[in-house]
Design a protein that fits this description.
- The strands form 5 sheets. Strands 2, 3, 5, 6, 7, 8, 9 and 11 form an 8-stranded antiparallel β-sheet that branches.
- Helix content is 25%, strand content 21%.
- A hairpin with a 3-residue loop joins strand 16 and strand 17.
- The chain folds into 3 domains: 166 residues, no CATH class; 279 residues, Alpha/Beta hydrolase fold, catalytic domain (Rossmann fold, 3-Layer(aba) Sandwich); 91 residues, no CATH class.
- It is globular, with a radius of gyration of 24 Å.
- By secondary structure, the protein is an alpha/beta fold.
């Protein structure tokens, strides 16, 4: 039975089939005697693919046509020892090796290593440390991989195929300062205490033209929230390389999208140094952590007090170093997707510390539409169920509604990549951020990762602490006056991840809020993820213009709300 039929036939049957799968050829993965560490904790992944253009590890994805991956934990794996992946090990897209067709495959193994953390609450957990690649197991320094090798595999054949973890991924060189881009590494006292080790937040700071020539100037600050940045993105002092090899983007139908990206980055540089562009600071924050490529910029039982650390520790220190104005009226937030949710959450949880959030394609801001699941009323995250039948829930669509994978598929892939919420994936990070901590020190599951059955007690915790619409409606009388004019939301009405659904529910509340919210909510017609609010530009372009799109709105907000005697001149040179 192929993976698609297996998934649609019901998880109960699939689990039973996996448990009773007939013996098939298995793989023996060896940690060589030359490994840098004497022993390893972590997750061993095995990847098979018929495509040899890129390494197998880079072909793992939730899509129906992605590479096959299987995974097992290792605890204290010593040099020279082996781990076996056989037909009883869970996989994706096929449920196990028994479902992988006979054929020739490029094969690669990865050991994603874990560190031991002794948390301040007395719990001990094993998690993948953030080591410079944004929690990307494919690239994280110190992980071991095998060189890709082409092997013949037959599920009907018994025997063992050997793979050796013979390569250690090297360290990633830190970004270096330039005229316009500076870097600020900050040790957080509160996070270091939580994690039981030194924990840092790094800012990639875009400084204005002639920053060093104007020591008297003090600047407004824009926080560009989003996924892990290895440096400040979308800014280039040089035009596109004329010898650039075009890379097509099927999603946008662009044959040379990398050239568009480079041109947009250079165009932004030209705007940045132009005489009429405001002189300000923009920062992208690296707050990658053991669960994900960023923290969602809020306090969390499992990730620690990142909200307080960013707002009360990191930002004041950054403003001191880079001469920020250092006041709530001069701080602004924007971002898309994860960054959109973070911009909204930071503004809502710290209403006086920021003066406006421009929130594009945010992750679900109302958990009655957590993508397409109502976690309070639905019984299952994977299925719409009736008395006699059920329909699987999709995980993604394009603007035509075509679906490349289901919610169960993406969650099963995450479970293959790491149990106990350790995959570094999207669904797992929501659980890591929003859930209470379990007795074992790991996040409590919002739903069973195999069956999709939702835990209503965990859902209630999500609602009371992180459902942004619920929190606004519950607390509006108290925080609403400090949020007037500060919440602005933009989303495509065909967002790939159904994120517009939760925005509709948020808008329903904001329209009737008393006092009035005085912001705006806009939808892009047939626009996908991540439309930023400009109806004059295609989605492919708007997603590249966050740093210039909201500047006029920020300046207007400053003009309307700056307190008496505020510095409105030193930064206008």
């Amino acid at each position: 039975m192929n993976a698609k039929r297996l998934a649609l036939s019901g998880l109960g049957f699939a689990a039973a089939l996996l448990a009773t799968a007939a013996p098939a050829e298995d793989f023996r993965i060896t940690l060589p005697a030359s490994a840098p560490d004497a022993q390893y904790d972590g997750r061993v992944l095995l990847i098979l693919t018929p495509k040899g253009e890129t390494e197998p590890r880079f072909q793992v994805a939730a899509d129906f046509d992605a590479a096959q991956v299987l995974g097992v934990n290792v605890d204290g794996l010593k040099r020279g020892e082996t781990v076996t992946i056989d037909s009883k090990v869970l996989g994706f897209p096929a449920e196990s090796l028994a479902g992988v067709p006979k054929g020739e495959y490029f094969v690669q193994a990865v050991l994603h290593k874990y560190d031991t953390y002794n948390l301040s609450n007395g719990k001990t957990v094993k998690l993948p440390a953030a080591r410079g690649a944004g929690q990307n197991w494919r690239k994280e320094p110190g992980n071991l991989i095998s060189k890709p090798v082409k092997l013949s595999f037959d599920p009907a054949r018994t025997g063992t195929l050997d793979v050796a973890l013979d390569t250690v991924l090297p360290p990633i060189a830190p970004a270096t300062d330039s005229e316009f881009i500076r870097h600020f590494k900050f040790k957080s006292p509160s996070l270091s205490k939580f994690w039981g080790r030194d924990t840092f937040i790094t800012g990639h700071v875009l400084v204005p033209k002639d920053f060093d020539k104007h020591p008297e100037a003090r600047y407004p600050l824009a926080i560009f929230h989003g996924h892990f940045p290895d440096d400040f993105s979308g800014f280039s002092t040089t035009p596109p390389d004329p010898k650039l090899k075009c890379l097509p983007n099927p999603r946008f139908g662009e044959p040379c999208y990398n050239r568009i990206e480079q041109q947009e980055a250079h165009d932004f540089y030209k705007k940045w140094v132009s005489p009429d562009f405001p002189r300000m600071l923009i920062v992208e924050i690296d707050h990658s952590n053991p669960y994900y490529d960023d923290s969602y910029a809020v306090n969390s039982a499992n990730l620690g007090p990142y909200g307080d650390a960013i707002t009360h520790e990191f930002i004041p220190a950054l403003e001191k170093k880079f001469r920020g104005l250092g006041a709530g009226w001069a701080r602004f937030l924007y971002g898309g997707s994860t960054g959109g949710w973070e911009a909204a959450a930071a503004q809502i949880f710290y209403p006086k510390e920021y003066n406006g959030a421009f929130i594009a394609c945010p992750d679900p801001i109302d958990f009655r539409q957590n993508m397409i699941t109502n976690i309070y009323e639905d019984k299952n995250a994977y299925w719409r169920e009736g008395p006699f039948g059920r329909v699987p829930k999709p995980g993604k669509r394009n603007y035509l509604g075509h679906v490349p994978y289901l919610a169960e598929h993406e969650n099963r892939l995450e479970l293959v990549l790491g149990d106990k919420t350790r995959s570094g994936g999207q669904w797992d990070v929501w659980e890591a951020v929003y859930s209470p901590m379990g007795e074992d020190g790991y996040p409590k599951r919002i739903y069973d990762k195999r069956s999709g059955v939702i835990d209503p007690a965990v859902a209630a915790h999500w609602r009371d602490n992180y459902d942004l619409r619920h929190i606004l409606e519950r607390d509006w009388k108290k925080i609403g006056p400090d949020l007037q004019g500060k919440l602005n939301i933009y989303v495509g009405d065909m967002d790939n991840f159904y994120l517009n659904n939760a925005v509709y529910l948020m808008e329903d509340f904001l329209k009737k809020a008393d006092p009035p919210y005085q912001g705006e909510v806009k939808y892009g017609d047939r626009a996908e993820h991540c439309w930023n609010g400009d109806p004059t530009q295609p989605n492919a372009t708007t997603r590249l213009r966050y740093n210039s799109m909201y500047i006029p709105k920020i300046l207007d907000r400053i003009a309307k709300t700056a307190p008496p005697k505020a510095d409105l001149t030193s930064w206008k040179y």
